[in-house]
Amino acid sequence: MPESLPPFLTHPALNDKKIRHGFFTREGGVSEGLFVSLNCGESSKDDPKNVDENLNRTAQAMQAAHLLSCHQIHSTIVIPVTKAWTRDQKPQADAMVTREKGVALGIKTADCAPVLFFDAKAKVIGAAHAGWRGAVDGMLENTVAAMEKLGARAENIRAVIGPCIQQNSYEVGHEFPAPFLKQDVANEGFFKKSSREGHFLFDLPGYVVKRLKVNGLKETHSIGFDTCSDESRFFSYRRATLRRESAHGTLLSVIVLT
């Protein structure tokens, strides 16, 4: 890979000649200030020219003619991709699935969980943005169902959760566990007491893994990196908020059928 292209993380579960995938860090871009350097957030306060260049670099790194993303709204909407769209035509959704070769699916995050999916037998891929609200409302289930409509089978799908906020960084208030406990009292296991009275620490990737397994996936993994605590490699909405910074960058996770 040329030195001008940004580095990315991979996971062995998605190492397959039928696909390419990458969890990009904040390294290898052209943005400056709070957005240093590979900011991929088109809705940020960053210079749009810098964001365009960063996205072009990620597409080149994935050897993809088309890199698609959605206007993410913390929904449970999944788009089946049959053809590419331009960056100014992005649909509102939080996941995409496809059988089309050469069309890269990109998910943007800054603490939420990016999840990449692959069924090697059916040659179907998916990419989902799973914040806590989307995860509890059915984002993951909907993504699996959309892949099945394209011929995938849940038991054949491999899923990998990319860099996201980890439990020791994810402090929540006393009211936060309610929707999780209403869903299943066993979800109490994803919360542990914080040092602050009446607060908890929430295990987002652990909860995502459970939701995937409940829906029939046998192979689920989490890459395990904490976006909030690892400032040198990742952007983080929570870290920026705690510091009262005016803006933050956005990470990109990508999967493409070759």
Domain unit count: 1
Main sheet attributes: strand count, strand direction, barrel closure:
6 strands, mixed
Q: Enumerate the strands of the largest sheet in spatial order, edge to edge or round the barrel.
A: 4-5-8-7-9-13
Find the CATH superfamily.
CNF1/YfiH-like putative cysteine hydrolases
Annotation keywords:
six-stranded mixed sheet; CNF1/YfiH-like putative cysteine hydrolases; alpha+beta; 258 residues
Describe the structure.
By secondary structure, this protein is of the alpha+beta class. The protein has a single domain (8-166, 203-257), classed as CNF1/YfiH-like putative cysteine hydrolases (4-Layer Sandwich), CATH 3.60.140.10. It is built from 6 helices and 14 strands. The strands form 3 sheets. A 6-stranded mixed β-sheet has the order 4-5-8-7-9-13. The longest helix is centred in the first third of the chain and has 14 residues, at 48-61. The chain is globular, with a radius of gyration of 17 Å.
Short characterization:
The protein is of the alpha+beta class.
Which SSEs are present, and which pair or pack?
Blueprint: E1 8-9, E2 19-24, H1 48-61, E3 66-68, E4 78-81, E5 95-98, E6 103-109, E7 113-119, E8 124-130, H2 132-137, H3 139-149, E9 157-161, E10 171-172, H4 178-183, E11 191-193, E12 200-202, H5 204-214, E13 219-222, H6 237-242, E14 251-257
Parallel strand pairs: 3-6, 4-5, 9-13
Antiparallel strand pairs: 1-2, 2-14, 5-8, 6-14, 7-8, 7-9, 10-12, 11-12
